[in-house]
């Protein structure tokens, strides 16, 4: 009986700890004007498809990652022409955005260092850190996820997912051999 109460108490403290945690945002992510950072526009989507790991990131506004891996259809996404500032064929990609935060009246800079593996080489990380230093981004304010890095997959959907005209749909609701 005592053991069950102890376990229950530990479970309650654990839940309280999780629900009271807040993501803190370092003031260095906020700026009055967005810096002029060159966006890479000559990458093809095919070069970037597949699994990536968010090895380091500016604050992510949810406590626990709901899924370890997520998939995104990037067929019509402009993301690849507007957010990539660094690409290394050895397996590193840096995405960047600077969006106005109405609540603060300032711009919020978001940067993610993406790698092809959960354990990138020191050479890859050194190059990424050199780049972030060159654009004067506060790298020491990033959250280093390392082995906890969440993964996601970028893919191109090979077929249309919109509703097709009636002539292309299966005739299950119509009279005839396949219908009622």
Secondary structure topology:
Layout: H1 2-20, E1 30-31, H2 45-48, E2 50-57, E3 69-73, H3 79-82, E4 84-88, E5 92-101, E6 106-115, H4 122-134, E7 143-144, E8 151-155
Parallel strand pairs: 3-8
Antiparallel strand pairs: 1-6, 2-6, 2-7, 2-8, 4-5, 5-6
What are the salient characteristics of this protein?
Lipocalin, alpha+beta, 180 residues, 8 strands
Fold and architecture overview:
The chain has 180 residues and is α+β, with helices and mostly antiparallel strands. The protein has one domain: Calycin beta-barrel core domain (Lipocalin). The protein is built from four helices and eight strands. Strands 1, 2, 3, 4, 5, 6, 7 and 8 form an eight-stranded mixed sheet that branches. Strand 4 and strand 5 (92-101) form a beta hairpin. The chain is globular, with a radius of gyration of 23 Å.
Give a brief rundown of this model:
This protein is α+β, with helices and mostly antiparallel strands and about 180 residues long.
CATH secondary-structure class: Mainly Beta
Main β sheet profile: 8 strands, mixed
Strand content: 25-35%
| Class per helix and strand makeup | alpha+beta
Distance between the termini: 61 Å
Return the average pLDDT rounded to an integer.
Answer: 76
The CATH superfamily is known as Calycin beta-barrel core domain
Number of domains: 1
Low-confidence stretches: 4-23
CATH architecture: Beta Barrel
| SS field, number of helical segments | 4
Order of helices and strands: HEHEEHEEEHEE
The CATH topology is Lipocalin
Task: Count the beta strands.
Answer: 8
**Percent helix:** 10-25%
- Basic shape: globular
Q: Which radius of gyration do the C-alpha atoms yield?
A: 23 Å
